[in-house]
Amino acid sequence: MSAGSEPTRLLADRRTLLKCAGAGLATLIAPGVTLTAFGAEKRPAGEPASAKVRWGMLIDSSKCAADCDRCVSACRDENGWGSTGHPDSDPQWIRKVALRDPKSGLERSLPVMCQHCANPACVDVCPTGASFKRADGIVLVDRHICIGCRYCMMACPYKARSFVHEPIEEQKTVAPRGKGTVEGCTLCVDRVDAGKKPACVEACAAEASGAMTFGDLNDPDSDIAKAIAALPTTQIRSDLGMDPGVRYRNL
Predict the structure, then answer these.
(1) What's the first-to-final CA gap in the chain, in angstroms?
(2) Which of 33, 144, 211, 216 shows a CA-CA span of 20 to 30 A to 109?
(3) 205-249 pLDDT, tens per residue?
(4) How far apart are CA 251 and CA 249, in angstroms?
(5) Could you give the number of structural domains in the chain?
(6) In the 8-state DSSP scheme, what is residue 234?
(7) What is the CA radius of gyration of the chain?
(8) At how many degrees (to 10) do helices 70-79 and 199-207 cross?
(9) Are 136 and 116 in contact (CB under 8 A)?
(10) How far apart are CA 158 and CA 135, in angstroms?
(11) Sequence-separated contacts (24+) of 226-232 with Cβ below 8 Å
């Protein structure tokens, strides 16, 4: 047996045990609300998430007005989160961030959310496997086995996750939440599995400037792949080697 194989096996066994325990707890949740991995029941039978696809987003900051928050309000309405009244503990599914270049004075306003990295630090540090990445690149949290340690929050350089401190009322069944767990942007995975775009992208296209493009990064014929191939884009903190699935233009 090679060095380190036994701890690895024990960790895998622990994760398996916790996942089984979490599945049993699903029956204790209120009717209609199941804290399972997002979207797992929305995909057509026999068509699991595939590594052939990698979902991603391109945001053109030059089209994103500082006074526009339609993406934020659409996410809030779709997923049922809101302000807690305590800014330091408000949900961080998506937020508008103001940037200013001190040399040129150029200012930009852009939405920041989970970047759905190919090599997500949140997944690496999670002790239970609650933070995980689907085969198609969407990074999620399994609330059944999240123990609220918040290691993923500390590891995320984008401050894209938040901890649920208070009881949740009037939950959306497509985006279940739970006190004592960590949460963040899911790319509206239930909508994606149903062949739709995330709520923020649809709202931006219909009611704002159309600054957000969503699609399959692996498909050279997709709108997002063509846009990325045509002009330079930026990945926030690309130096960390996590390969974010969210890219920005005109930063």
Answers:
(1) 50
(2) 216
(3) 999 999 999 999 999 999 999 999 999 999 999 999 999 999 999
(4) 6
(5) 1
(6) B
(7) 19
(8) 140
(9) no
(10) 22
(11) 227/58, 228/58
Helices (H), 156-247: 189-193, 199-207, 223-230
Q: What is the pLDDT of residue 207?
A: 95
Q: Residue 197: CA atoms inside 13 Å, Cβ hemisphere, count?
A: 20
CA distance 57 to 114: 11
As a whole number of angstroms, the distance between CA 181 and CA 35 comes to: 11
Residue-wise pLDDT tens digits, 125-152: 999 999 999 999 999 999 999 999 999 9
- Strands 246-249, 55-60: parallel, antiparallel or unpaired by DSSP? parallel
- CA-closest candidate to residue 249, choices 98, 100, 61: 61
- Sheet strands (E) in 119-173: 131-133, 139-141, 161-163
Whole-number Cα distances in Å, 152 to 38, 75, 101, 232: 18, 21, 30, 30
CA 141 – CA 74 distance, rounded (Å): 21
> What CATH number corresponds to the domain at position 179?
3.30.70.20
> Residue 85 has what pLDDT?
82
pLDDT for 244 equals: 98
Confidence (pLDDT) at 17 = 39
Which of the residues in the chain have pLDDT under 70? 1-46
* Host domain of residue 214: 5-249
Residue 200's nearest CA partner among 54, 40, 61, 57 is: 57
Q: Please identify which residue in the block is written with the tokens 């049922």.
A: 80
pLDDT on residue 12: 46
Contact between 249 and 211 (Cβ < 8 Å) = no
